[in-house]
Amino acid sequence: MASTSHDPIQIKQLVEEAIALTEQNQESVPSAEKLKLMIADLERESGEPGFWDNANAERNQYVTSQLSQQTHLLDRILQWESNKGDCLAAFEMAQDEAACTEDEKNMFYDECKKAASDLLEDGKQYELERLLSGKYDNLPARMVLTAGAGGTEANDWVADLKRMYERYSEKKGFRVTLENFQNGDVVGFKSVELLVDGPNAYGWLRGEKGAHRLVRLSPFNANNKRQTTFAGVDVSPIVQDDVIQSIEIPESDLDITAMRSGGAGGQNVNKVNSAIRIRHIPSGINIKVTQERSQAQNREIAMKRLKGQLLAIANEQRLSELNDIRGDIVEASWGAQVRNYVLHPYKMVKDQRTNWETTDTSGFLDGDLEDCIGSLLRFRTKEEREMEEEAA
User: Which residue has the higher pLDDT, 105 or 293?
Assistant: First the structure.
């Protein structure tokens, strides 16, 4: 069997790029020894009598979270060192003409390329994670997908987006819960609510909010004509209860309506007005909750969601007070068209904010969002840096 030939210069460049990025990233984190001491201190505290008592709930939640994060970071740093050592050793062995045959040399080059590629890929991933430094980026996310104009076509588009975000979350190792949904009249969904939990879930997904435009030959059009349809995506952080409870919204700013919840029919028909719709008058935000049989429970859930959305908008728009949020700010933050998905007459997914694009529409709709989201994170970081420089 013919052995694969390698270009030593290209492999050397790959190794140098991977190691340079790794060393740059290592400068931004504590050393492995320091992390081991920090982990030992956290483990010691978590083992103390009374640590898991209800009265200590806030502290044990913090310690548990820190223990998980620091342990993950330590494992990552040790893996960097392992990959770094592997690619350097393999490259050195491959360069030793006297010590190995041609087949052995190619084998060492293969090992070197794999270790260097793994090192470079994780280094780039870590670079992106460092950009997730927003106030709520580390929290779980609530995503609400809503069909826009287009009837059955729009409902099917919501189903496609739901699958896309579920597949993306699966690849990221996130846990996705289908919290609520309203079926379309024919196919798909009129609306879907997903809860996404995992490291920096809100930070990764917050840029998805806005209008998503689909252009394709509609399978629901009798003449198979090209059709344009829209779906709205809202993303908000799931904020801790203590933060939510500390926020007060004047009753005069709220328009609260009770209504009858829809059901499946038969014994499941809800004959009481248990559903709640809350409209935040200054911003125009509407929250509707139907999932509980109790009106009081639905009202509590709706208020939590409203406060979460207001916090997210205030943070995005750099507002110091929730009272500063107005309808025009909400429209700019939540209603803008963010991405085009063109499936006919050509194939293209293009982000309107960064101009990032791909012709691999199937891969993108199958959850390959990492490059697009990474491009947006870098774009926003650059924007924020420029704004800070202008303000200085």
Answer: 105
